Amino acid sequence: MAHFRPVSALLAALFIAASSALPAAPTKLVDQPPVKISEPDNKTILIDFGKVAFGNLRLSCPSDNTGPITFHFGEAQKNGRVDRKPPGTVRYARTKASLEPGQATIVAPPADKRNTKKTNDAHPPAILTPDEWGVILPFRWVEIEGWPGELKPEQIVRQAAFSANWDDDAAAFECSDETLNRIWELCRYSIKATTFAGVYVDGDRERIPYEADSYLNQLSHYYTDRDIQMARDTYDRLINFATWPTEWAPHMIFIAHADWMRTGDKDWIAPRYNRLKTKTLLERAAPDGLIASNAQQIKRTDIVDWPTTERDGYVFTERNTVVNAFHLAAIQRMAELARAIGKEDEAKDFEARFKKTHAEFQKQLFDSKRGIYRDGVGTRHASHHANFFPLAFGLVPADKQPGVLEFLRGKEMDCSVYAAQYLLEGLFNHGAADKALSLITADNDRSWKHMVDSGTTITWEAWDQKYKPNQDWNHAWGAAPANLLPRFVLGAEALEPGWKTVSIRPHTGSLQFARGKVPSPRGPVLIDWTNDRTFSLTVELPEGMSAQIDVPAAKATASVFVNGKATAAERKGERWILDEKLSGAFKIEVK
């Protein structure tokens, strides 16, 4: 069956924000011309749109057309042609259409039953795109067979779906490492391309939100665009369509807390607070405060990492270190949210629970002889995950950090693209930026360098096909550098809800310079630094924002200058921390 419609029936609907089938942030179709048209043989026309996007085609067919035309849509190429048998769930689709001569027509692939189901016994229902759009799928290349004569560029466009609010100029990043620049652009575009559904989905395979995917997507969306609504709409969908992994529930608290830090909007938090409390895992708390896992949870729902081959040999026990780290991080954030909406007694209760459980966490799960955390009570095995999750969540006391950091420095990327978000956060936040950057750009098949070198234009669900044979090639949980690079290399993070006060804390590693634009609810933050024999930082803050400045202490430096004048600052290890907060535009020099 041909999948096409005359354009005249669709013109009024193409830029509708959303249909009743899509209760989500507004999205739209954008016309994209081909980047290249070629003829690999005398029967075939090959069109390259430059990057993968979710969409379909609109064509103007010549008046002399008489027969059906075949279209092959693909995410992958093989030997310079559309790969018609790609691995896993990499997308390929074929359709044959009888186009009306002289008329503009929409050509789309057949619908995928799995990701267009309105009901689903195994998973929540798929997110449906507007009927008016016709079927969309992710593709970069199209092969056309049977086209009469020459295909002119003006005869074909891809109708690509994106957030209607997306601003390509909202964010920027550039540094002295060209590989990092390519990685930033890959990850930035990955966030844009996966806004097609109006909520954060797991790629194209199922088109449903998952809590962990959504939180990582939210972090990167905040650092690449100014939109806040998509994260909120995703949260509201997930609160009614929860998924199964244990640690995915606390991610709902992370999403709400990230909104609070972004917006300072307690009116959005307040009506959601009571249901948020059900995501803490407290129903599984043992008398000592630690979260306990039964046999089914150990076997199935305690996830640690995904896919299962990415767990670094994790040993599952009744008291699971990763599960408890998530629980502690969740109740710590719940205390902040409770206080924000005036529930002081509940805030104090969460803080008391945190203090008690955190003490048990150290007592029962830390191996003092080795200076690292075990996977759980009852095993000596110590995985990557049992150490970087506590580090990322700020659960490792200062006296225990050296051992944990030494352990993590001795390992490579022994985790998935999802868990890498937390591994890298832990390293950046604890003086190991050099290690974090080396992992991002490592010359192996477990890095983002591998992704950009492959030629992909949207991040993958896994490091490589061999690590997850059914992986999607359009998965935003693989786009962590979109938030990590501006947060840690440029160094901009909120210290107060609504970005009233921010931290500007660049992590240089071996980079010579970095510059960029970070979107905030108060306006863009512009940062430009160079790191040579001395360190120089220029910042422009929007009105109503002040910054706490923390900069590298280059070798043989003794003073910090603001706009050419010496200023009070305290040296802590390898950093200078300014005594006074700054606002407006200023230049910092470490001499």
UniProtKB/TrEMBL annotation:
<dbReference type="InterPro" id="IPR016007">
    <property type="entry name" value="Alpha_rhamnosid"/>
</dbReference>
<dbReference type="InterPro" id="IPR008928">
    <property type="entry name" value="6-hairpin_glycosidase_sf"/>
</dbReference>
<feature type="domain" description="Alpha-L-rhamnosidase six-hairpin glycosidase">
    <location>
        <begin position="169"/>
        <end position="488"/>
    </location>
</feature>
<keyword id="KW-0378">Hydrolase</keyword>
<protein>
    <recommendedName>
        <fullName>alpha-L-rhamnosidase</fullName>
        <ecNumber>3.2.1.40</ecNumber>
    </recommendedName>
</protein>
<feature type="signal peptide">
    <location>
        <begin position="1"/>
        <end position="24"/>
    </location>
</feature>
<dbReference type="InterPro" id="IPR035398">
    <property type="entry name" value="Bac_rhamnosid_C"/>
</dbReference>
<dbReference type="Pfam" id="PF17389">
    <property type="entry name" value="Bac_rhamnosid6H"/>
</dbReference>
<dbReference type="InterPro" id="IPR012341">
    <property type="entry name" value="6hp_glycosidase-like_sf"/>
</dbReference>
<keyword id="KW-0732">Signal</keyword>
<feature type="domain" description="Alpha-L-rhamnosidase C-terminal">
    <location>
        <begin position="493"/>
        <end position="559"/>
    </location>
</feature>
<dbReference type="InterPro" id="IPR035396">
    <property type="entry name" value="Bac_rhamnosid6H"/>
</dbReference>
<dbReference type="Pfam" id="PF17390">
    <property type="entry name" value="Bac_rhamnosid_C"/>
</dbReference>
